[in-house]
Amino acid sequence: MKHLPKHLQPRWRYLAVGIESWPDASIDRGAFQRELWYAAGNLLGDPGSADADLTVFAFRFADGEGEAVVRVRRGEVGSARAAIACIGEIDGASVGVRVRGVSGTVRACSERYLGRAGGKTNQRDVAFANERRSAWKRDESYDVRTDDGFVGATGLDFE
Fold this sequence. Notes:
With 159 residues, the protein is α+β, with helices and mostly antiparallel strands. It has helices at residues 29-52, 77-85, 106-113; strands at 12-21, 55-62, 65-73, 89-90, 93-103, 121-128, 131-138, 141-146, 149-154. β7 (131-138) and β8 (141-146) form a beta hairpin.
């Protein structure tokens, strides 16, 4: 079978996506791809989802922070951004997802927008709600472990 001529081949754009969740969340590529397809299907419908053709091209997630490269057809970047914004939970873990940037090649996408997922994350003990608790610090925000799960806090909550 022959290749399509270059002018008939599909054109792609690559979205750099940042993912943030609680430190104990465990998210894999398959779960992210499934939520991406469900979000696109629910928002855009089956024809719109097929037009966008969202595919996770690269994925990394550890210690509550991650990033992914999502491939989308060239004319569907706006629809893809809207579908990605609809993701709020993956495998029962609450997540924050945002598009860091759009590029025409995977290499440019990785070099410009990925590898800068937040600062260093380190664990420490803090006084929160009149008790000593474990917390994970990222830049100026804290994820404090409570009896019911995690609570997001800032440095001002500890003063």
